[in-house]
Here is the input.
Amino acid sequence: MTNGARSDSIVRGFALSSVFWLLVGLLVGLWLAAEMIYPALNLAPWLAFGRLRVVHTNGLTFGFTLAGVFACSFYMLEKLTRTPLAFPGLAKAQLWLFNIAIALAALSLFAGMNTSKEYAELEWPLDIVVVVLWVMFAVNVMGTLVKRREKQMYVSLWFLVACVVTVAVVYILNNLAIPVSLTKSYSAYSGVNDANVQWWFGHNAVASVFTFPILAMFYYFLPKSTGLPIYSHRLSIIAFWSLVFGYLWTGAHHLMLTPVPEWIQTVALAFSLFLIAPSWASVINGFYTLNGNWEKMKSNYLVKFFILGITFYGLQTIQGPTQAIRALSGFLHYTEYIPGHVHMGTMGWVTMIITASMYFTMAKITGREVHSV
Here is the structure.
């Protein structure tokens, strides 16, 4: 199916937004790194490390990553369903509202408006905007799937649906709050329950934003860019259902050796170790797709990104689950190892796959190859 000009402009808009917020997030991260060496760079309250850190994490998680997810999702959705977007006007409105929301989020965090909940720092008015944005995205995804001409749903679409549903559930439930003013609210939960719900959200935000849609891109763009069929569609489906089932139980591994009930910690530990298998199913699928065609690593620059990305995904999904083991968690928690773990996943896995996917997508919708290979 050939994209219409309107859909192409939406994909291009989200792709450019992703690049813009990537640059902003990286610049803030660079300033943060400099502050750790030169504390005098904490020049004003709005440049304090505590405020800048959440601008950095939110800017890259929601600005860069989600914009890339939206761009590639809309492109894949039309191709895999052989159907135009159900509501292109809604997608265009989503593009504008998304960038306004990210800008307002950054300004609010610079100003110190912060709920103090990891990856959920935004105050309640912006939470409402985020929910509206997600409903707009969900309506387009589900509406296009309902109207699809291609009846078989490829695994990328399953991962996309999982992303839509999971984000909606965990974001809304974790961000339930009691407003006391326009800029301040308090969590609807308290004590250990608040911590448990927070990390149920926190880890499933990783699943919903950094795993499901990124695997959707990997399973679509690797075969498209190489001309090779995915090694095993059955293995990809097994990986999908196993990940969806297993991820939901792992949040408490962020709370090992804390007052959270020990049985909850043990369940989280067990499912964390379980996740190694379905995660590596996708790693194996990626490597075996290129089996006998490894010369493409030399001739196709996109393959370099995809293989490096899936390699880091494999390393990340061993490192993360093993950190849930109590002895290791007690040794590693609250050390610089943890930010290193996060950055290995976000830069080695997420950024590599989004970059390759957007290179492919932009080349297709513009009819021009990337400026410099």
